[in-house]
Structure formats: structure tokens, C-alpha cells
Amino acid sequence: MRANSTPRPSLPQIACFDTASHHAMPVVAARFALPRQYEDAGVRHYAFHGRSYEYTARGLAAGRVIVAHLGDGASLCALLGGRSIDTTMTFTALDGLMMGTRCGAIDPGVLLYMARQQKLSPDDIEHLLYEKSGLLGVSGLSGDMRVLLACDQPRAREAIELFVFRIARETAALAASLGGLDGFVFTAGIGEHAPEIRAAVCERLRWMGVVPGSPGGSLISAPGSPVEVRVIPTDEEAMIGQHTVETIAARVA
Fold this sequence. Notes:
Layout: H1 2-5, H2 27-30, H3 36-40, H4 50-57, E1 64-70, E2 74-80, E3 83-87, H5 108-116, H6 122-131, H7 134-139, H8 145-149, H9 154-178, E4 183-187, H10 188-193, H11 195-204, E5 228-231, H12 236-252
Parallel strand pairs: 1-4, 4-5
Antiparallel strand pairs: 1-2, 2-3
Helix pairs in contact: 4-12, 9-11
């Protein structure tokens, strides 16, 4: 942005932050159990995939809905009346669900072990958690779900099983934040294009009122299912475009 400011100082530049739609989360959902000095310094749950959740929420009825943005990066968001009240990603895009190459939530003691016993540097640990973990780390084969689904090796199946398990477990936690569950939405690359994963997640969520129906189409729960399950393609770029147009229009007005 600075490079553009010099030759074209009058050109509007707009930053569309992925964390913006989560900023009004309840304080209790955004707070870490750390000394207050860290919160005062900005250490809190910021959350990500905000543009994706904002786009998806436009087509949802009011109620208690969890949206699963499942791709190479993955997270869940609890929406109450279309507003984000809790998420699985927190201070960074590393937390929460298991992802393509990211580990998701992990006991901080493991990081202390890596540093003290394995003598890994902060840079080494960061590279391991962001680039070598997740589906890739557990399978030892690939972080691409398409590759793992097509593979018959046990470690590939174990990686998929863990991915599904973590989604179901975090869904239960977010349902507690919502006080129940009326709807569940799959979106993003895996969520939109991997019916095997959707079916496995729905099966684990039966106890919450999910009754699986036809795997095809946008509505994949059975008629009368207490929890309505949908597949909704996301378009983060469209939301960025919309916010850009609205911002420019407001400046002109």
C-alpha cells in the first residue's frame, strides 16, 4: 500500500480484514485465560475466514447455525442470527481444527517439550506447526484431502478419521456456545467437494439431531431433521468486492 501511495497519493486504498466480522464476539468468547497485561497488549481471539462466513450467512435463516469452512485452512464459526459469536481459530490461523498442513489446537506443553527436549528453535517450531503437521503430518503422504481419499494406506485413513473427529468435537463445543443447534453448513474446498467427509461428519453429529439425507444438492439432511444441513459455496472475493464498492460509495457521498 505504501508503494502505491507515492506515485498515486489520491488513489483510495481499502483493506478488507478477514477478522473484522468476528470483532463483536462476546468478550467471554474472545478472552484467553492469561494475565490481563496480555489482553491489554492485544492478545485475544481474532478469528479468521470472516469474509467466507459473512458471505455464507447471507443465505441463512435466523437461528443457531455452525458453518464449517473446510479447506487447506479450516475452521468452524458459531452464528447466532447471522452474527459470529464464537469460532475455532483464535489469535492466529493455526488454532482450532486440524488442517492440510497445520496442526490446529495443541497442548502448549508440547511446544515446551519441543523447545526444551528436542532443542527446536521458535522458527523450527513455527515451520513444523504450519507446514509439516495436519493431514500431511499424520498421513506422512499429503495435505491434500483428494489424495488421501483416493489412497488405501492406513495412515491416510487415520488422518481422515482425525480430521472428522476434530470437526465433530469442536462442533459440540460451539453448539454449547449457541445453546443448541438449528443448522449446520459445509463450505470451501473440502466442504463443498468431498461428500465422503460430509457424510462422516454428519454421522458423528447424529446425536445432536442431524439426520443425513441425500448426499447431493444443497440440502443434505433428511426431511424433518431437527438440524438442517446444507452445502453452500463460498465466495470471499465477492465479499471483498462488495465492501470495497460500499466504502468507495460512502466516500463519494
